[in-house]
Amino acid sequence: MFQSDSLRGRMVAAYVLLAVIIVGFFTGSAFFVVAKIEKELIDNRLVRAADLWAADSFHVVQSQTLDLSFFKGPLIPQPLQTLGLGTHEMKLNGRGLHVLIGEANGERYAVVDDQSDFESIESSSYITLGIAFLGGIGLAILIGRVSANRVILPLTKLASSVQDKHTTGRLPGLDATDELGVLARAIDDRTNQLSYALQRERWFTADVSHELRTPLTIMLGAAEVLTSRLQDRPDLLVMTERIRRNAAETAQQVGALLQLARVPEITDLVLINLRPLIERELERCQPLLRGKALTLNLFCTEEVSVRAIPELVTIAVSNLLRNACQHTEQGIITIYLNSSQIVVEDSGTGLPDAVQARLFDRFVRGDDDFTGGSGLGLSIVKRVVDHLGWGIRHEPNPNGGSRFTLQLPDVV
Predict the structure, then answer these.
(1) Which of 54, 140, 239, 358 is an S-S bond match for 104, by CB 3.0 to 4.6 Å?
(2) 162 in a domain, yes or no?
(3) For residue 401, pLDDT beyond 80
(4) Are residues 66 and 186 in the same domain?
(5) What is the DSSP string of 365-379?
(6) Interhelix angle for 310-326 vs 234-260, to 10°?
(7) Which domain holds residue 102?
(8) Residue 24: CB partners within 8 Å, gap ≥ 6?
(9) Hey, how many other C-beta atoms are within 10 angstroms of the C-beta on 27?
(10) Residue 245: per-residue pLDDT
(11) Is 280 a residue whose pLDDT tops 50?
């Protein structure tokens, strides 16, 4: 028969296979019975009539039965003279004949039985069996599809409801007492558990972020005050700037966490011009270049705008740039911006294969001999990209170093 990957197809196939076996068995039995009747009622009848006729020395012709014809020697019709000894079936002048050719006392004879009526009944029987066979298969397909739909349709509705992100009501089938009800209730329980766990994570992230914003605001304000009062102390200004920069970056991370705690579908998107945003982040990375023979370049031939969340785009670009600055001691860091992607390319030492395999996992870092960090930067970038519906990939730079590509959605 045929194979199907769907449960509906397999159920229909099972019905069809069962019908083929049953109908095929009865059809084969009917053919056997018809053949048996033909042999018993016709062939053996011809043999008995020939024996009686031969025992009577061929003196009585057509005396045993009115529907048999007896021929001997040259009286055998021409079309029958070429037949060999035994019984034969043939058509002659549109009539169905059963012919027995025998030989007695050195002379051939023929007994002919006209079975046109029987042949007509036999043909009708075979046609009826064929129609019954096809009808049985068609009925099996119909019953199989109806039965499959009764089983599969509720399952399909349940699957569609589970896949629908906007479904807020009860799942279908929760009140059913069959296996589908058991499955629906298990899915509903698991969904509620996952939803509660996700909600708790969002509550925790939002609470922590809100609690951190106040002290960070105080730190930023204090750093600005110190900067204004320590203009005559360059040695202390460096430390003050470091405090201010780290506080600002931490505040940015907190803002990103607040945005990530929101459901993506209900987050308001705004139109962002990416070039000024990237230029601001390049300017913010300048302090990281002190003491390094490192150059930042931006290549952008057109204005590119996308609908996104500014804070999240900023955190993604900022983390990629800071990551490149921290892992590159000398050379060039290049940012390419076009209508389909943002590429951050550095000429640093690159990343080991073991790190590349787990690059976007939390707390995974590169070479720690000359860099610090918590290992959360690229993990947050991945979460931001997923939240925005963008794409990200990493590949080694052919000239050495790393290349990160942010795949943009359709630009505006």
Answers:
(1) 54
(2) no
(3) yes
(4) no
(5) -S-TTS----S-HHH
(6) 130
(7) 7-145
(8) 133
(9) 16
(10) 78
(11) yes
